[in-house]
Amino acid sequence: MTILVTGGAGYIGSHTVLYLTEQGEKVIVLDDFSTGHKKAIEGTVCYEGKIHNSELLDKIFIENSIDSVIHFAASSLVGESVTNPLKYYENNVMGTFNLVKKMAEYNVKNIVFSSTAATYGEPKSIPIKEEDATVPTNPYGETKLAIEKLLKWSDEAYGLKSIALRYFNAAGADPEGRIGEDHNPESHLIPIVLQVALRKRNSLKIFGDDYSTEDGTCIRDYIHVLDLAQAHYLAVKKLREEKKSAIYNLGNGTGFSVKQVVDACEKVTGRSIPTEIAPRRAGDPAILIASSQKAQINLQWKPQYSDLESMVKHAWNWHQNNVNGYNETFVYNSKV
Ligand code: UDP
Question: What is the pTM of this model?
Answer without folding.
Answer: 0.96
